[in-house]
Design goal:
alpha+beta, five-stranded mixed beta sheet, elongated
Length: 330
């Protein structure tokens, strides 16, 4: 079977197709004409991927649905069916594409470390929880760099009777006065910022006719940031030093933490919900990070930053905005 790069969404697999192309012709999968290579180049990889799963009659997922949801390897579900069916055929694997599956027990057990820690800090141990259980996932916290002079934004609701807050009043509260947040413990101020101005409207929970003061902040030095939006590739892991199962575990833990970091506190939640994410921020801080970033759950495409040292960003200007339209969907 001949395949082309247009069958795949994974950038590294696309490059591998190009590198192993022996001629140009019609792709047996998508029908396009172009550079192509034999599927045998990827057979061992896909066999290893299929071995990440076990039969599970209680699951609603198939190998294809999980690969689509978690890894975005293929550009089309039908392409996935065609390619994986051929891999299963030539390899003699005892699995059908419509079988209900889940990740193998080893992955499920190791990926549960975040849920176990959440239970411990909320119900069992508050100050002596075992941070070290995350050390084997050190690569999970590989950092990106937030460059000096990068501009980020922060909003505050302007108090009644004022036109706009001053730059001095756009920062976070002083030490000892900071309330607990998703990232910061009670009394320890962290600076919450957004990548763009629009995201701040959502993050401050503004309502119709609210007047907002929007501060523009300039980053004062290069900062080491733990990026909870990091992307993983199974194919890169297959050719690297990590096992595929290790990569799945790291991705699952990263997603779980990111979900809790971005989750807004609901009216009936308590500050106990903050404790696990505060703990993970302390873990990042202990490992020399200057802050974290994660996707906004309130504004699609928005990115939030939390800086552990508020002095690492300086407010350079403030503008006033008024909320004139609110859309509610259910």
């Amino acid at each position: 079977m001949w395949v082309c790069k247009d069958c795949f969404a994974d950038e590294e697999i696309c490059k591998e197709v190009e590198n192993n192309s022996t001629d140009e012709g019609v792709c047996d999968v998508c029908g396009k004409i172009g550079k192509r290579c034999d599927i045998s180049v990827f057979t061992d990889f896909f066999v290893s991927v299929i071995h990440l799963f076990k039969s599970d009659i209680n699951s609603q997922d198939t190998v294809i649905s999980i690969l689509e949801q978690d890894w975005h390897i293929f550009t089309d579900v039908q392409y996935a069916r065609t390619i994986l069916a051929e891999v299963i055929r030539v390899s003699g694997l005892d699995i059908k594409l419509d079988d209900k599956v889940s990740y193998i027990d080893d992955i499920a057990a190791r990926a549960s470390v975040w849920e176990q820690l959440k239970t411990d800090v909320k119900e069992n141990y508050r100050f002596f929880v075992d941070h070290d259980k995350f050390d084997e996932y050190a690569e999970l916290f590989s950092s990106s760099t937030l460059k000096e002079n990068t501009l980020l934004f922060r909003a505050r609701i302007t108090p009644e009777g004022q036109k706009v807050l001053t730059a001095k009043n756009m920062g976070c509260p002083e030490k000892g006065k900071a309330t607990a947040g998703r990232a910061n413990p009670l009394g320890i101020p962290y600076l919450y910022l957004c990548k763009d101005e629009e995201t701040t409207f959502y993050e401050v929970r503004s309502v119709y006719l609210d007047r907002l003061s929007i501060g523009k902040f300039r980053i004062q030095r290069d900062l080491k940031i733990v990026d909870f939006n990091s992307k993983f590739s199974l194919f890169v892991s297959y050719d690297g030093t990590n096992s595929l199962s290790d990569t799945v575990v790291k991705k699952k833990i990263l997603e779980a933490i990111r979900h809790d970091l971005s989750k807004p506190l609901r009216r009936y939640d308590t500050e106990l919900e903050y404790i696990p994410t505060q703990l993970i921020c302390e873990y990042c801080k202990r490992n020399t990070a200057d802050g974290i970033c994660f996707n906004s759950s309130l504004h699609s495409g928005g990115v939030n930053y939390v800086l552990f040292n508020p002095d690492d960003a300086k407010c350079i200007s403030v503008v006033s905005r008024e909320i004139k339209l609110i859309q509610i969907t259910v």
